[in-house]
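I am writing to request your help with a piece of structural work I have in hand. What I wish to show you is a protein chain and, alongside it, a tokenised description of its three-dimensional fold. Could you please explain, in whatever detail you think fit, how the structure tokens follow from the sequence? You will find the record immediately after this paragraph.
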Amino acid sequence: MADKKTLLYVDDEVANLNVFRIAFKRRYKVITAGSAEEGLEILANEPVDILVADHRMPGMTGVQMMEHVVEKYPHLVRIIISEYVNDEIIRHAIKSYNLDGSIGKPWDAEKLIALIEKN
């Protein structure tokens, strides 16, 4: 069996981090971060294939994080999670930061896997 891809999930809510880890640990090597800043630190120190980040977080938002990673980590599959997927900020981020997609919150594991795997 091929090595699992590494997925970094960034969300400021601990419960979401735990649920995500449980839902995806069989398919991916899951690393979690409780803030965009912590996520950027992980990206700087560990190889990651997929970045999934919640948009609404205190401090740096998920969209702002994507702005930081788009040029530095062009190989990443980048997906934003938001309660407001049709929000102008999210639509702008998809175009401007070459995101691979967005998904609503609460997310559906199968839909998220399909979005990840199509990239």
Observations:
- Residues 6-117 form a domain with the Rossmann fold fold (CATH 3.40.50.2300).
- The chain has one domain: 6-117.
- The beta strands are 6-10, 29-33, 50-54, 77-82, 101-104.
- The first strand starts at residue 6 and ends at 10.
